[in-house]
Amino acid sequence: KAHLSMKSLLGKKLSSILKILLEQTQLGCESNWPLGKGERELTSLAWSWLIASGDKSVRKNALDSVSGASMSLSRAALNSLQPIECFERESGMRIFFERWKNRPVILDAWFDLKASTPNSNGLYMINKLLDHPMFDPLAPNAVRAVLGGLARNPIVFHALDGSGYDFMADQLIKLDKRNSITASRLVKVFSRWKSYSTLYKKGMIKALDRLMGADLSSNTREVVELIQGN
Fold this sequence. Notes:
The protein has helices spanning 2-13, 15-29, 37-52, 56-66, 71-81, 87-100, 104-116, 122-130, 140-151, 154-157, 163-178, 180-186, 198-212, 218-229.
């Protein structure tokens, strides 16, 4: 919330400058990679701050770019819209999915964005992604996209009731049966448990204990032991 608030403040205070910046970078953004890389990065930054500030015209411009020729700008537009619950965010996600649904490598980005999008019914949405017909539970990249996205979704993963931690532990136990290497890497989302305040720390410890009580592979168990000992 503090991060979004700061972006909103910057977007409001620097609105005129950021809009000039968008005009200046527009031509360069259309250049083929690696040309235009800097312009696309600046555009992404300007979008992020202006959209956070509530600028509806920029939301529309970002949405238009989702179906544009540049994958970098398409991803940047979705990332900029992601923190804000709005029509453009939902529409952009639908457009991106329809455009790339037959390209699993690119579609992983969609799964990641959906899983990391702040949402009041977050775990319900994560479950829908795991049951999605285009989700491949045997593909490590797809699994990392959804569960990694969950870990980067503070509202859901760090829910005060510990439901996000419990859910992650359950998913890692299931994943360990299919792919212990991927599970042992993803379990590291709990590695910084000591850096959190007591309320969150207790939930993470409970999830780690749950993992230790499960029938884990030697790979994953070793990582959990190391995390608990650190």
